[in-house]
Amino acid sequence: MNQLGLTPGSRHGDGPGLHLLLNHFVEDVQNHHDRLEVVPRETTSGQARVFKAAKVVLAGGSIESPKLLRRSSMYPWLPDSVKPLVGRGLTDHPTSNEITSFVTGIGGLPLSATDHGKIILYSLGRRDANNQIRYPFNVEMNLNHEFWHLRNNDPMAEAAAGPPGAARLDIKFSFGNCLDDNNEIRPAPPFGYVPEVVFRNQSWADYLADSRFRALAGWQKAPAEIWDVLNRVALDIFAQFESGGVPAQPAGSARYGSGGLGFGWGTVHHAVGSLRMPYRPRLDAPFSADSVVDENLLVVGTQRLYVCDMSVLPLSTAANPVRTLTALALRLSEHLG
Questions:
Q1: What is the mean pLDDT of residues 264-279?
Q2: How far apart, in whole angstroms, are the C-alpha atoms of residue 47 and residue 187?
Q3: Which of 102, 215, 298, 322 has the smallest number of CB atoms closer than 10 Å to its CB?
Q4: Comparing C-alpha atoms, which of 28, 53, 30, 58 is closest to residue 40?
Q5: CATH 3.50.50.60: does it fit domain 55-91+270-336?
Q6: Which element (helix H / strand E) includes 37?
Q7: What band does 66 get if pLDDT is binned at 50, 70 and 90?
Q8: Partners of 140 in the β-ladder
Q9: Alpha helices in 203-259 (DSSP H)
Q10: Which residue ranges does the chain devote to CATH 3.50.50.60?
């Protein structure tokens, strides 16, 4: 921190540098012509403070940042095209249930209940003869997943319930997802601070088939066709492994489809999109004319207020978006510098 020049230059905490203000929440961001003023309030005493800055970056995430922008004194002055988009579009990426096999080796290499690993198989985005993306998903594969669950201090406390000595192999499918304007971070009630989150779970196959996968990948597939793709890929992956000298199969003859495995319930994976940047609403569609932030993450209609968190992402990617967010932060730092 010293090398980067982030150490505050005053013992009283009012010098340049990095300041961490604990036990406060930000109530308002105000525009005063040549500067912005940030108003945080101390959570126990209720005392308000005022910080003046030439530029401010919101980084509270997909729920907190739109909540703060909407309740700020700057919101009424935003363009009419921007106001309806603040908080709207909240989206996560649908992830399938895990499908499991028990394996004893791969390519002549033995595997056991004490081996472990996490492997991600990434889609190349290739298209088929109908110009649809063949595999608009990534595959997460865990070997003896209990070693990768942070809730366990002792990995062997959750031993795989399979054949003695075999390794448990789990895979699941993570799809990207375009913004969903049915979802919204609504304003908090008068004198309240907790917003209403309207969020339709992305796990229903009919909803995914009807609009989400169509916008993401051009898929014109009914749920049964979607299950067929997942089952074929799962079988291809398991067949690379051995189980007692023969190609591995799903445990218990499990399959994706009606009455079988589907998409998980109640889990939100990497919510994005509530303060969208310029974006394409569908595969191969032109860029939309309206957004909350511009290509430099500046809130449209303002001169000094920026956003840099998951809320600006216009797509919930199939892969974890941390690297994308880091790249946006580095790009913004260069722009502000």
A1: 84
A2: 23
A3: 322
A4: 28
A5: yes
A6: strand 36-42
A7: very high
A8: 120, 172
A9: 205-207, 213-217, 223-238
A10: 55-91+270-336
